[in-house]
Automatic annotation (TrEMBL):
Keywords: Cell membrane, Membrane, Transmembrane, Transmembrane helix, Transport. It holds the Pfam family Multi_Drug_Res. It is a multi-pass membrane protein. This is Guanidinium exporter. One of its GO terms (cellular component) is plasma membrane. It comes from Candidatus Nitrotoga fabula. SUPFAM superfamilies: Multidrug resistance efflux transporter EmrE. One of its GO terms (molecular function) is transmembrane transporter activity. It comes from the Bacteria.
Length: 106
């Protein structure tokens, strides 16, 4: 159950990061509200997953999901640039997440 909570927390991190961008510095009501609500839910689920998962594992995977999701969202929805170095950086993040998951005994 901790892994499911962690995965959902990571997806919610992507949602709040994207909606924060759309909030234009918290000047737009709906994206600002989505940001705050999904941020609180993401933190709550992260804290639930940390009841059983080690801090380093949970936090690394949570931020990794968020980083990769924000990277992909920026490319897909905001027209951010794609180049070899950015793809390499994303691949290294994925590698780190996989290694962290494989090294966890939980």
């Amino acid at each position: 159950m901790a892994w499911v909570c962690l995965y959902i927390a990571g997806v919610l991190e992507v949602v709040w990061a994207y909606s924060m961008k759309l909030s234009a510095g918290f000047t737009r009501f709906l994206p600002s509200t989505v940001t705050v609500v999904t941020m609180m839910a993401s933190f709550a689920l992260l804290s639930i997953s940390m009841r059983t998962l080690p801090l380093g594992t949970a936090y690394t995977i949570w931020t990794g999901i968020g980083a990769l999701g924000a990277f992909a969202s920026g490319i897909l929805f905001l027209g951010e640039p794609v180049n070899g170095l950015r793809i390499l950086a994303a691949a290294l993040i994925v590698s780190g997440i996989v290694l962290m998951k494989l090294s966890s005994t939980y």
